[in-house]
Amino acid sequence: MPFTPLLMHARKSVAYTTRSSADGVDKLRSELARLKEKETALLQELREIRAAAEQVQVELDELIQRSAGALIQRLPNEILVTILEHATSYHCSTCVDPCWKWLGVCRRWRNVITHTASLWTHVNITPRWTQTMVRRHLTQSRDMPLYITIRPLLMRERWFGMAGPRRHLLSLIVPLAEHAWRWRSLDIRGFPPSTLQFMLAHFDSVSYSPVESIHIRSDEHETGALPWPNWIQPDTCPRLTYLYLGAFRIPDVVPAFQLTSLALITDNTQWSPSVPSLPFALRNILQESVKLTSLTLYGTGRSFRDLSLAPDSIHMPALLTLNLYPRDLETPGLESILMAMVAPELRHLNYVPRWPTDTLTPAMFRGTDGTPRFPRVTDLRIRNAVNGRHDMSPLITALPMVQNVALGGAEIAAFLTRNGSHRPADYWRDLERITIIEPETSIMEDLFQWLTERGHKNKTVLRVSLEELANSSEFLEFHERLMRYAMVELKDPQIKIGRTNFPISPSLRAKLSRYTPGMVSAIGSILREEYTLCEPDDENATSL
After folding, report:
1. Cα 235 versus chain centre, distance
2. pLDDT tens for residues 465-510?
3. By the 8 A CB rule, do 377 and 400 touch?
4. Distances in whole angstroms, Cα of residue 89 to Cα of each of 39, 78, 121, 326, 449
5. Rounded CA gap, 153 and 290, in Å?
6. pLDDT cut 70: percent of the chain above it
7. Tens of pLDDT along 160-213?
8. Which SS3 state, helix, strand or coil, does residue 528 take?
9. Which residues contact 143 (CB under 8 A, 6 or more apart)?
10. Whole-number Å distance between alpha carbons of 396 and 284
11. Contact, 360 vs 303, CB < 8 A?
């Protein structure tokens, strides 16, 4: 078939179109591949951007949380634990234990406290506790030493005389006895004698304890002497160095502890006249306790029977503090210990009889060879001990290094009595502070005159403080005059009304005890919120 020009043109057109279509497909496929490749790259980049954005959001949230939270939350756990350990050491013994409060602060604190045994070593038990709480303390503290404090509730009533409360106390004490091998200190105060004896009886099973400090005293407003606890023995408590027992009967065979601090209270109550309890064998204790640095004795001479103390017979080379609170109505009494004692390092001496006496004489403060018995005493407190019949100059010169002195009215009168051109108190060359206990107008006149003389002689200006003022008007008068001669120290001065002390600076605030009924009406229009009820053992409600 012959080709016509038209047919030949058609064939050429088809061939061209076919070649053009093939080239277009290839280009489109190439473009599609390129776009898909770009899409993959963009998706990867998007994922990376989203991941980076999420990380930045997390960091931003943490930064906002840290900046908005308490500063203490930024502390490392080690520093937080150190702070909490100090807080447990100085915690109020009658309040809820701080660990139980801190557990509810936040999750982090709860985790730190739960896993830190040292925060559970101070066990401050009150009747509000349960046996579960005691056992958790013992468990959380693991094998750490235990520092145990047991106190009654402030409003104790006669709660502990009931069978139910006693059983509750027993449930708290039994777990403690099981961990006696971890005790380091045991402090029990404020319970009635019968309840305290019931409590201590459950420690009789203790065969060994490394306890170093024991302080046990019954309610000071209750009478009754307790038997010596059987477990307080050298074999059971070989590390004991501090012992304070209030109203306990000491056996004839005195345990030979290596004590550094000893306090024995024979007269259990300060409200009733002194009645000798069963005898204490004091002489052996004093002769064997050569390591004592602090000694406190409270009671009558008869209650520390069979002293038979010859002069200079008791040597205490390490004694730094001596507190004697005689309750004698006859002599010789507890003051005989002074003449028997040789304590060249003594620094603090308190001698405060219950009744006004004339027991302290200059001879008591000098050895058999005439030298001062306590030549290094710097802090002296004497009240109800002299009546001015003796010249006090030899006594003053026997205590030549006194810097701080607290004196009652009779002592002020005796030490400021003029002897020629001098007064006995002038022999205290290093005197810095003087405290007047229960000042009276006649006594203060002698003091003002003496301070005036010191000023004229250009002697060191003394610091003066007042204790147990009779009324606020006297305080204002004495304070105004003292400011002319001395630096007056105001440590919340108080006036006495009955058995209640009222702080009068900076404003009148009444602290009432249960022994002062109707006191509010007696002192006038005191607003209800200006006074607070407190127990007689409250340190702010000083007993008379």
Report:
1. 29
2. 888 776 666 667 777 778 888 888 766 566 566 656 666 554 444 4
3. no
4. 68, 17, 9, 34, 47
5. 38
6. 71
7. 545 567 788 888 888 999 999 999 999 998 888 888 888 888 898 898 999 999
8. helix
9. 117, 182
10. 31
11. no
Higher per-residue pLDDT: 422 or 333: 422
How many of the other CB atoms lie within 10 Å of CB of 486? 20
Task: List the beta bridge partners of residue 186.
Answer: 148, 214
The label of the residue with tokens 């982090």 reads: 108
Burial (CB < 10 A; 0-12, 13-18, 19+), residue 280, is: buried
pLDDT for 185 equals 93
- Token reading at 242: 């501090």
Contacts of 335 (CB under 8 A, 6+ apart): 301, 324, 326, 328, 351, 359, 360, 364
SS (H, E, C) 34-70: HHHHHHHHHHHHHHHHHHHHHHHHHHHHHHHHHHHCC
Query: Poorest-confidence range of 132-141, 369-378, 459-468, 516-525?
Result: 516-525
CB atoms near residue 232 (< 10 Å): 22
Angle at 236 (CA atoms; ends 230, 240), nearest 5 degrees:
105
Task: Annotate 362-421 with DSSP letters as a single string.
Answer: GGGGB-TTSSBSSTT--EEEE-SS--SSS--HHHHHHSTT--EEEE-HHHHHHHT--BTT
The first and second tokens of residue 101, run together, are 């409060």
Between the CA of residue 381 and those of 138, 277, 376, 434, what are the distances in Å? 43, 27, 15, 10
For residue 539, what pLDDT band results from cuts at 50, 70 and 90? very low
CA separation, residue 198 to residues 129, 144, 339 (Å): 18, 27, 40
Mean pLDDT, the chain, whole residue set: 76
Q: Position of tokens 């007689």?
A: 536
Q: For the beta carbon of residue 53, count every other beta carbon within 10 angstroms.
A: 10
Note the pLDDT tens digit of each residue in 248-265. 776 655 566 788 888 888
CA atoms of 103 and 119, how far apart (whole Å):
11
- Length in residues, the chain: 544
What whole-number distance in Å separates Cα of residue 126 and Cα of residue 294?
29
Which pLDDT belongs to residue 515? 42
β-partners of residue 459 are none
User: Cα separations (Å) of 323 from 20, 352, 354, 384?
Assistant: 122, 8, 13, 14
